[in-house]
Amino acid sequence: MSIQEGQPLCESTVVLAAIISSMFKRFTVIPAIDLKNGEVVRLRQGDMARSTVYSSDPATVARNFEEQGAELIHVVDLDGAIAGAPRNLDAIHKIRSAANCRIDVSGGLRTIESVREVAAAGADFVSIGSAAFLNPELLTRVCLELPRRVFGSIDVREGRLAIRGWVETSELTIAQAIERFQQAGVAALIITDIARDGTQSGPNLTLLSKIAGTSQAPLIASGGVASLDDVRALSRQFRSGIAGVIIGRAIYERRFTLSEALSATDQA
After folding, report:
1. Is 77 a catalytic residue?
2. Is residue 8 part of a domain?
3. What is the reported pTM?
4. Ramachandran quadrant class, 20 (left: phi over 0; alpha: psi -120 to 50; beta: rest)
5. Which domain holds residue 93?
């Protein structure tokens, strides 16, 4: 996929509202594919040493998600997040070949070349986390080159902003991170509570509601979803700015299927 020069998104509420209506017409359930050494895994609380392998075939996993109704799949290059550059491009290529739905890729995107690599591999969207805080100019440039195709990733550990694959903490506050992303013109914010990620202990509704109250960009919740009731609770906050949820371990461990999660949001 070639990348063309674009214009940054307007920061006005009107334009951000248009993004919500065009990208998130309804509450969006987003299955996750986390890649480590080319395999589909899930970490517990962001610890690379505490990973569970669920499949050696990410393409088949992606195809299955699409067949169940996925409109967007969140792909995380865990090795890339640690290395600071993509490490699972082959797996991303295979996912793109297997599924026609939209793909969001994150992990190790700290240079414009890395962003272009994953876009060429088939990413419809890219999620920028550490780079936004380590190299703010890069965030601006990516939003210029990929208008409306950039998500801002905010990973929270004990109220602090985690970076570099969750192994370090930034001095920026969460509020400052939100402001930086909004000024750059991201399409949405992915909010991950690391303490709940992979634990199936329920989403941090308090944190999410607080951030939604201060952000003009739509939020995508991540971390802790364990039941269909969790999915319903989040979907009820759609009009408050929580536009979707990323789900991983609960689906892989068959707490419920993606199809059931999609049906639960319709019911809510």
Report:
1. no
2. no
3. 0.87
4. alpha
5. 14-267
Rg over CA atoms, the chain: 17
> The CATH number of the domain where 181 resides is what?
3.20.20.70
Q: Which of 104, 155, 193, 197 is catalytic?
A: 155
Q: Could you please report the per-residue DSSP string of 210-260? A: HHHTT-SS-EEEES---SHHHHHHHHTTGGGTEEEEEE-HHHHTTSS-HHH
At 90-146, the pLDDT tens digits run 999 999 999 999 999 999 999 999 999 999 999 999 999 888 888 999 999 999 999
- The answer as to whether 253 is a domain residue is yes
The one catalytic residue among 34, 79, 104, 230? 34
In a domain, 2, yes or no: no
Amino acid at site 92: I
Phi, psi of 191 (to 5 degrees): -110, 115
Assess whether 230 carries a catalytic annotation.
no
